[in-house]
């Protein structure tokens, strides 16, 4: 068993956006106080470590980088292709087909699907299977809240997600780099984990097309390719759904795709990663540093086999 | 097809300018990209990909010189082969330096592990190993020392080197293999051209000797 506990980070790794926004106000206020000759350094020091326990050195990735360096093969295979080509995507109006093992299969208008659900602001590390990483502030809803609304039947064990299939809007789909449409999936208990979210925004704005507008999955303990973009279908099943990268190269990309520094990709090491904007590679953390929140989901599983 | 005589100095100058532009132009381009932020969010990866592309492209250009000369009979093309080949080697070494020096930040144990465990890096190193003796023996002095025949035989190593380099590229990419496959096609065409041209030359030589023999026997 390889569930390692992180030894160098504090327990929770989530920073609500309100915290980091407040922190800025706090820092500003502290600065004003400093001008007034009060003990600003102590206040600043305290403010840098919010109670939720953000790792000390996780700075937000510049928005420009997070929105111009993307893997979204529906718009081309180059990292700068999505930003250049995603203008053809029309994220509104948008509907999501819900079917499979749910109480009432139906096509939802996206706004209806999300109406009234608690909004979430989360800063998550994002670790790509290609060994680079970012830190991104997401806005959206918890996946578990959406699933609760869909009312899976007791026999449902997995959730399958499907990306839009439309070569007009997604010119990359004219080339068979992957079998379109893109599909991803989670075990239902993974999907119900509070960390899993469906994002509709990032950096406090509507999510840009190249990042998966209007609705994308964010599962920060898994490699980035699990975070399926521009979702048009959610299906509940009792068997493990097939997923795009696993179909394309099963020996390189597993169904689980949990971030794991001890299981290498066949062609490169996963022990380290380059944080975008940094020169030296840093160590990759087990479950991307979220072991405390998700480790129990995989208790007893051989993570070398279920990579 | 009519081929220009190739005697025009303007043509020669234009070809020389293209050769040097393809060999050294990327330096200026990289400097410009670095200054203007054009290397993007992951500049080390961008440098790594770009230098690899330059090396492959120049290697293909250098391989194209011999068939091109055979087609056009422009003997003055030959020295450009050395320029292009040396430039390809220079970019391949730069590619390696970016990988070891910047990407791995001189982590030599990781480098060794990669060379042993990752086949795309193994063949990449093989390509550089094959090109190294060719770069060393590219001088007039070495041609004289080895003799034309042996020198030519040695420099045929450029073909396995090119194949290793393209295999390195093919195994390194994640999914979109369009460009690596295109390079394989280019190598196949260039090697095919070489075989064809050699056969033609041999037949021509044969025809000349037999007709000479016939001429002497009828005399």
Describe the structure.
The complex is a heterodimer of chains A (307) and B (219). In chain A, a hairpin with a 5-residue loop joins strand 2 and strand 3. In chain A, helix 1 (17-35) packs antiparallel against helix 2 (40-47). Chain A has helices spanning 17-35, 40-47, 63-66, 81-85, 110-114, 143-150, 188-191, 244-248, 291-294; strands at residues 15-16, 95-100, 106-109, 120-127, 132-142, 158-163, 183-187, 197-202, 205-206, 216-218, 231-237, 272-275, 282-283. Chain A contains 9 helices and 13 strands. Chain B has one domain (9-218). Helix content of chain B is 84%, strand content 0%. Chain B has helices at residues 9-36, 43-72, 78-103, 108-117, 119-136, 140-146, 148-155, 158-172, 178-218. At the A-B interface, helix 3 of A face helix 4 of B.
Structural class of the helices, strands and pairings of chain A?
A: alpha+beta
Spell the H/E element sequence of chain A.
Answer: EHHHHEEHEEHEEHEEEEHEEH
In CATH terms, what is the fold-level topology of chain A? Sulfite Oxidase, Chain A, domain 2
Q: What letter string, H or E per element, gives the SSE order of chain B? A: HHHHHHHHH
Number of domains of chain B: 1
Which descriptor suits the 3D outline of chain B?
A: globular
Please tally the β strands of chain A and state the result.
13
Q: How does the major sheet of chain B shape up?
A: none
- Percent of residues of chain B in helical segments? over 70%
Distance between the termini of chain B: 37 Å
- From the spread of the alpha carbons, the general shape of chain A counts as globular
């Amino acid at each position: 068993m390889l569930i390692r506990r992180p030894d160098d980070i504090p327990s929770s790794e989530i920073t609500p956006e309100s915290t980091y926004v407040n922190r800025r106000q706090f820092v500003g206020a502290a600065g004003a106080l400093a001008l007034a000759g009060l003990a600003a350094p102590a206040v600043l020091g305290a403010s840098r470590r919010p109670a939720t326990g953000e790792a000390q050195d996780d700075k937000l990735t510049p928005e420009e980088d997070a929105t111009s360096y993307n893997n979204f093969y529906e718009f081309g295979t180059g990292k700068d292709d999505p930003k250049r080509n995603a203008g053809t995507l029309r994220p509104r109006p948008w509907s999501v087909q819900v079917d499979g093992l749910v109480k009432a299969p139906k096509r939802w208008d996206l706004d209806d699907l999300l109406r009234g659900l608690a909004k979430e602001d989360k800063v998550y590390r994002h670790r790509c299977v290609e060994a680079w990483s970012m830190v991104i502030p997401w806005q959206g809803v918890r996946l578990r809240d959406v699933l609760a609304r869909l009312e899976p039947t007791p026999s449902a064990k997995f959730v399958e997600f499907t990306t839009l299939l439309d070569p007009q809007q997604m010119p990359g789909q004219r080339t068979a780099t992957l079998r379109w449409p893109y599909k991803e999936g989670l075990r239902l208990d993974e999907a119900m984990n509070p960390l899993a979210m469906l994002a509709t925004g990032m950096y406090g704005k509507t999510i840009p097309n190249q990042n998966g507008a209007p609705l994308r999955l964010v599962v920060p303990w898994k490699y980035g390719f699990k975070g399926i973009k521009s979702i048009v279908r959610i299906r509940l099943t009792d068997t493990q759904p097939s997923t795009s990268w696993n179909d394309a190269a099963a020996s390189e990309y597993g169904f689980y795709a949990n971030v794991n520094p001890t299981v290498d990709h066949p062609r490169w090491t996963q022990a380290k990663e380059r944080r975008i904007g940094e020169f030296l590679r840093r160590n990759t953390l087990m479950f991307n540093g979220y072991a405390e929140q998700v480790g129990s989901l995989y208790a007893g599983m051989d993570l070398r086999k279920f990579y | 097809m009519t081929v220009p005589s190739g005697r025009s100095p303007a043509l020669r100058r234009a070809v020389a300018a293209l050769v040097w532009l393809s060999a050294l132009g990327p330096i200026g381009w990289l400097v410009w990209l670095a200054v203007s932020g054009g290397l993007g969010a992951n500049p080390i990866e961008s440098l790594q990909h770009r230098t690899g592309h330059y090396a492959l492209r120049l290697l293909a250009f250098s391989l194209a010189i011999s068939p091109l000369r055979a087609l056009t009979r422009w003997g003055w093309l030959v020295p450009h082969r050395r320029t292009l080949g040396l430039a390809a080697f220079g970019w391949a070494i730069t590619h390696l330096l970016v990988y070891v020096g910047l990407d791995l930040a001189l982590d030599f144990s990781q480098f060794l592990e990669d060379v042993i465990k990752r086949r795309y890096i193994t063949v990449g190193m093989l390509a550089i190993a094959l090109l190294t003796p060719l770069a060393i023996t590219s001088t007039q002095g070495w041609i004289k020392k080895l003799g034309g025949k042996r020198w030519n035989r040695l420099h045929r190593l450029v073909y396995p080197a090119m194949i290793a380099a393209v295999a390195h590229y093919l195994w390194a990419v994640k999914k979109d293999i369009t460009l690596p496959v295109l390079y394989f096609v280019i190598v196949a065409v260039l090697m095919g051209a070489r075989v064809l041209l050699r056969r033609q030359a041999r037949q021509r030589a044969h025809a000349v000797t037999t007709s000479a023999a016939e001429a002497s026997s009828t005399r």
